[in-house]
């Protein structure tokens, strides 16, 4: 694989646009992961297989906390994921509630709520709100 850099003297790309230009035409990524992490004090698991990376959180409040404190803009994340052929899925107790990236189909409801190019899974959200543990 040949790598290119847009910056001077082999510097890494300085902007998302430069990074996306560098990624154009490269093959899609495939991910394998099985991690336990902690986000804002909430335990979470990350599972990746092929072109899907799923983040599973223990509760709706944990998902809301992650959304409020997200480290990257939603539009940037969607563009970056799509450029490498990946989809991110947010789950609450194993139930998909939202998707972002290559295979996500942005919903009109998400856009009206100001969530950007996110695919909401209404049934999953309802289950996440009502599902009891145990």
Structure description:
The protein has 134 residues and is of the alpha+beta class. 31% of the residues lie in helices and 29% in strands. Helix 1 (16-23) packs parallel to helix 3. The longest helix is centred in the middle third of the chain and has 10 residues, at 74-83. It is globular and about 50 Å long. The N and C termini lie far apart (49 Å).
| Beta fraction | 25-35%
First and last CA, distance: 49 Å
Task: Trace the largest sheet across and list its strands.
Answer: 1-2-3-4-5-6
Largest sheet: 6 strands, mixed
Given helix and strand content, the structural type is alpha+beta
Spans of at least 5 consecutive residues whose pLDDT stays below 50 are 1-7
Q: With helices defined by DSSP (H or I, 4 residues minimum), what is the helix count?
A: 5
Please provide the count of β strands: 6
Question: Overall mean pLDDT score?
Answer: 81
What is the H/E order? HEEEHHEEHEH
Oligomer: single chain
Output the radius of gyration.
Answer: 16 Å
Shape estimate: globular
Helix content: 25-40%
């Amino acid at each position: 694989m040949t790598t290119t850099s847009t910056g001077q003297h082999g510097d890494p790309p300085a902007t998302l646009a430069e990074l996306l230009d560098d990624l154009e035409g490269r093959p899609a990524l495939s991910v394998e992961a099985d991690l336990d992490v902690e986000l804002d004090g909430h335990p979470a698991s990350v599972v990746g297989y092929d072109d899907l990376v799923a983040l599973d959180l223990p509760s709706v409040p944990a998902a809301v906390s992650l959304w409020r404190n997200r480290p990257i803009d939603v539009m940037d994340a969607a563009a970056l994921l799509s450029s490498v052929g990946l989809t991110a899925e947010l789950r609450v107790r194993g139930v998909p509630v939202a998707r972002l990236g290559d295979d996500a189909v942005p919903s009109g409801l998400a856009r009206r709520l100001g969530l950007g190019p996110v695919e909401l899974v209404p049934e999953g959200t309802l289950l996440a709100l009502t599902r009891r543990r145990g």
